[in-house]
Amino acid sequence: MKPVILKDIADQLGLSITTVSKALKDYPDVSKKTKALVKKLAYELNYVPNSFAVGLRSQTSKTIGVIIPTMVHYFFSTVIDAVLKEAENRDYMVIIMQSNENYELEKKQVDLLLNKGVDGILISLSNRTRDFKHLQKILDYKVPLVLFDKIAKTINCSKVIIDDRKAAYDAVTYLIKKGYKRISHFRGDLNPQNSIDRFLGYKKALIDNDIPYDPSLVYICNTNLDFEDGYNSAKKLIEDHGDHVDAIFAVNDLIAIGAINYFNQKKIAIPEKIALCGFSNWFMSSVISPSLSTIEQNAYKMGEKSTEILFQEIEYKHKNINVEYQKVVIDTALVIRKST
User: Fold this and answer.
1) CATH class of the 164-296 domain in this structure
2) Average of pLDDT values for 14-32?
């Protein structure tokens, strides 16, 4: 069946297309009676606005793009929930892409989004991204760009992050105040900024509390930062240090949960023999046994704020208003559970 257009409604009611369009948009210069007639007929005819045509008139695609490293990660799925809700409130579509922590794929996805003519792009960088020319290309195309969580400090755009260094510092300081002295760190790869900052926060907490930093207690989880990484790192930790380590601070909850699984299998009591603290506050953290102490990262708020900034920059672009790039730091909180 042929789609109903504004002209069909206008012809049936003997009105101009302009009047019908204004009535559907609740313009004040159209009478309530006319608005009611137009909306009633539009409903009866199953009229749906043509977003492509609307976009052509407003010079927008009514679409934004999002690139994240992984979809299965609880943090990113929560961010996406917030992005979708904010976009829906503005009648925008969202194209979601997953880089799988792959730099080359991330570059290709940026090109695809630019070719689609999206109005703006949100990106959390892959762990393998070390060159940022593809990000500069977005800015060169005058497309609003907001980086969140895993960012590039050298790219001049708006960013929404947490204070990873402070959050890690607070977590390790808490462990030290609980009496733990030999604290291992299961860290992320050497490149991502949040992995670097969490390591630096860990190290500073030790030094500020007069505990010598021991590099042999730091284990790099550079594959998928997942359950298996945590399990294998815990196994290696015990092989290397036996019972001479009394706590672990992990770069994320999945790694910490993998470690808990290993210790449970080996009947190493948590937290009596070894305590664990994760990062992100996954839903699994509260149901694992023992429940995991962690850092609440406020993923939903991060997604909400990132999208809000992106839409503001899209609006400013169309109004020819100069954009002042923002750096927003989302609050974190230490969540204490049975693992510590």
Assistant:
1) alpha beta
2) 87
